[in-house]
Amino acid sequence: MALELKNVAKKVGADVHIHPTYLRFEPGSFNILLGTTLAGKTTLMQMMAGLEKPTSGEVWFNGRNVTGTAVQKRNVSMVYQQFINYPNMSVFDNIASPLRVARLPVQEIQSRVGEMAELMRISAMLDRRPSELSGGQQQRTAMARALVKDSDLILLDEPLANLDFKLREEMRDELPRLFAERNCVVVYATTEPTEALLLGGKTAAMHEGRVVDFGPTAQIYRHPSSLESAKVFSEPPINLARASVKSGWVLLDEGVSWKADKGLADGSYTIGIRPHHVSPVRQSAKSVIIEGKVKVAELTGSESIIHFRAHDHPWVSLSHGVHPFETGRFARFYADMSKCFYFDADGHLVDLACAGKAA
Amino acid sequence: MARITLKNLKHAYMENPVNDEDWALKELNLDWDDGGAYALLGPSGCGKTTLLNLISGLLTPSHGSILFDDHDVTGLPPEQRKIAQVFQFPVVYDTMTVYDNLAFPLRNRGVDEATVDKRVREVAEMNDLTATLGNRASGLTADGKQKISLGRGLVRTDVNAILFDEPLTVIDPHLKFQLRSKLKELHTRVPNTMIYVTHDQTEAITFADKVVVMNVGEVVQVGTPKQLFEEPHHTFVGHFIGSPGMNVLDCEVKDGHAFIAGKKIATANKAAAKAGKSEIGVRPEFVKFARHGLEARVVKVSDAGRFSVVEADCAGGRVRLLVEEGGAIPSDTAHLEFDPEATRIYTNGWLAGREGQP
């Protein structure tokens, strides 16, 4: 049961919400839509579900064109960021409702609801009304209802965004396990790169209504095919700098240079280097010194995030341990250029330099 | 600006509290320095909002007192406490300009226009609102509006403290990052007493000089981010702070030393000879694969980019450890070693040797 978007596009008036997009999600796969708010994740999902009609292109499911098929006839489950429950029903009845609609035997309903409640840690709440639960418990009730039936397609639109930090961590850990034995297609939208990485599966990086990259999540993270994809997949934001390559040397606007990797042609590039490769301590022989004025130092207990400005560009350094910096002071950072990405004038990744080692 | 002192403070929403669990906020003694940046951190229902409301005066405590610079304000209504508050959702007058929104708290208190103008421009500059001062607030995005709310919290010069109640909830994650840095920067420029309530460890830790960690109506630790990370005083702190949180394993205690599966575990503290549940706490950052140590079996590896989170079954429990990108991960059986400096014994949840002391 594969889901295929064949050049699906969405326009509202003159505004393009989704540019023509081709995507294929395999049966039993876990797929992530990663991008900021307004990147087009929700619109794309609504077209997958049949809640929105594409302006052009087709949606195919299980080898069938379902573009015109109503959502009710598609066997789709959806979970939204804002949880929705039946207020006058108990938690048990809320979760059981899709199974009752499908006329499953009472015994099976009992066992399936119990199993799902266990997984969502709401077993003790089954007799209560949603209004008597915390926000997190209400969201888990909504998720349990969406997941309890055997849908062919499960769409989760930032389902953990409203949960407490710790609960989010636990649910993120358990979710992939939930789908491991199913043959359905799961699509999960998130704005957080780390969440995408931990969930695994495949990721479609989205930016301004376009899918700018698609592939196995870890691969997209380590080899973003474009500048846009690298930006979508970096938190804190990836450091970018203009570089020129001439006679075997790379020269940054920041005034530093290093020996270019073999095969890197002369010309102008944008280099991208993730914050954890910019450190107050030297990490490799290929580290170059970037000096800048410290704007803010955030100490997270185990890590330090230092924002600084060098050559009138914002830079971010993320390093292990606590490195207190006084704001306003000039400080020295080491950027490990063996880990940087080179993007050409069109924003495409130059493959040779980074393949196999950058991250 | 003021130093805030909480003295034997406790609160119950019911009339005659009898049991421990009847108290929404258990007895609490705290001193907050003038000009400090503090965070109240804990899961929903831990009592942090109750505490915030007691400070702002929206609630009167059932017991104890609140002092601003040694002046008892326990009986004072909110408007006499000179507190600025920033809420979860932006509170903005849509029909007014950004300028008038920022000026509102000052004009409301009869401040002269020259001073109003000076303050509004200062605060606008700090919040990157200078370019939009003449615009109507209605056209702004959620983060733009919340910047106005922050600005209004900062504009008064006569406040004792500024309280933030989960102010970044409605903000997009990639903008959260900017606003978080902004708040931190603002505190360095406006050295006011600031109290920030959140359930998000990252927000609390990046903002605050000192974090007050709460759980079920009780303060379990007050410390710098570094202290909370390096020496959790309670297993809850170890679990709640850090991602993933601290590993907690059952252990036996003999002569003050900890044993797991018959093996002695080197720890930074000793346990007192008294009854109770004994556990070992060690963060994933301080566990590594080794030739010797506790036997374990790797059951899951999650690639988080910079590092992998490895889960292993060990001594009847589950241990998580972090392995740097590119580091070797045994595929099946392995041995785990805990860094003795960062491994501690906990008795009934509390750090052994300082039971019950946040």
Task: Please describe what this structure looks like.
- The complex is a heterodimer of chains A (359) and B (358).
- Chain A has helices at residues 41-49, 91-101, 106-119, 135-148, 165-179, 193-199, 217-222, 227-232, 351-354, and strands at 3-12, 15-25, 30-34, 56-61, 64-65, 76-79, 153-157, 185-190, 202-207, 210-216, 239-246, 249-252, 257-259, 267-273, 278-279, 287-299, 303-310, 313-320, 330-336, 341-343.
- Chain A is an alpha+beta fold.
- Chain A folds into two domains: 3-232, P-loop containing nucleotide triphosphate hydrolases (Rossmann fold); 239-354, OB fold (Dihydrolipoamide Acetyltransferase, E2P).
- In chain A, helix 2 packs across helix 3 (106-119), helix 2 (91-101) runs parallel beside helix 4 and helix 3 (106-119) packs across helix 4 (135-148).
- Chain A is globular.
- In chain B, strand 18 and strand 19 form a beta hairpin.
- In chain B, helix 2 (98-107) crosses helix 3 (113-126) and helix 2 packs parallel to helix 4.
- Chain B starts with a strand and ends in a 7-residue tail after the last strand.
- Chain B has two domains: 4-230, Rossmann fold; 244-351, OB fold (Dihydrolipoamide Acetyltransferase, E2P).
- The A-B interface holds A 36-37, 134-136, 164-167, 169, 173, 191-194, 197-198, 200, 217-218, 221, 235-237, 276, 295-296, 298-302, 305, 307, 322, 327, 359 and B 43-45, 172-174, 177, 180-181, 184-185, 188, 199-202, 205-206, 225-226, 228-230, 239-245, 285, 302-306, 309, 325.
Summarize the structure.
The complex is a heterodimer of chains A (359) and B (358). By secondary structure, chain A is of the alpha+beta class.
Helix/strand layout:
The complex is a heterodimer of chains A (359) and B (358).
Chain A: E1 3-12, E2 15-25, E3 30-34, H1 41-49, E4 56-61, E5 64-65, E6 76-79, H2 91-101, H3 106-119, H4 135-148, E7 153-157, H5 165-179, E8 185-190, H6 193-199, E9 202-207, E10 210-216, H7 217-222, H8 227-232, E11 239-246, E12 249-252, E13 257-259, E14 267-273, E15 278-279, E16 287-299, E17 303-310, E18 313-320, E19 330-336, E20 341-343, H9 351-354
Parallel strand pairs in A: 3-8, 3-9, 6-7, 7-8
Antiparallel strand pairs in A: 1-2, 1-4, 4-5, 9-10, 11-12, 11-14, 12-13, 14-20, 15-19, 16-17, 16-19, 17-18
Helix pairs in contact in A: 2-3, 2-4, 3-4
Chain B: E1 4-11, E2 25-32, E3 37-41, H1 48-56, E4 63-68, E5 71-72, E6 83-86, H2 98-107, H3 113-126, H4 142-155, E7 161-165, H5 173-189, E8 194-198, H6 201-207, E9 210-215, E10 218-223, H7 225-230, H8 235-240, E11 247-250, E12 252-254, E13 257-260, E14 263-265, E15 278-282, E16 287-290, E17 294-303, E18 307-314, E19 317-324, E20 333-338, E21 343-347, E22 350-351
Parallel strand pairs in B: 3-8, 3-9, 6-7, 7-8
Antiparallel strand pairs in B: 1-2, 1-4, 4-5, 9-10, 11-15, 12-13, 13-14, 15-21, 16-20, 17-18, 17-20, 18-19, 21-22
Helix pairs in contact in B: 2-3, 2-4, 3-4
